[in-house]
Amino acid sequence: xxxxxxxxxxxxxxxxxxxxxxxxxxxxPDGRTYCALIQPVAEWTHWDPAAEAVHGISREALQTHxxxxxxxxxxxxxxxxxxxxxxxxxxxxxxxxxxxxxxxGVPPAYRLDHLVRIxxxxxxxxxxxxxxxxxxSLKVRRHRASVDARxxxxxxxxxxxxxxxxxxxxxxx
Length: 173
Prior knowledge:
This protein is α/β, with parallel strands linked by helices. The chain contains 6 helices and 5 strands. 42% of the residues lie in helices and 16% in strands. InterPro entries: RNaseH-like_sf, RNaseH_sf.
């Protein structure tokens, strides 16, 4: 049986200099997911209302429900230790995860790589169609880190398995 890769996704305060992680989510090879809001540290001040409109997470929600960076970094290290974890926006996710681990004072115990490294050549439009069908099959209603990680993982499984998007391999794990 084909085992899916660990996938991670990060939601952020915006893009570019000064942006920081506000939510991290991952989908593990065994089917478990993890998701946490991240409480901003004092130095993290950049906030882009356009990013908030996409992910729907307010600064107030981060203050109220977010976990300190140290807690999130330790949990990620516990779940992902020694693994290569894949993402679809490596440049952004690498920077935001580095920001998280730096604020926590804990280096990552996992390696981050781009999902394209383990994905066969596929046209972007075909990937997007499969992803849309996976989102429909999962009844995705919100743009959040763990949901996005699960969608990426299942889309990858469909592409690797050569399945049509109408039949995502959810039962395989």
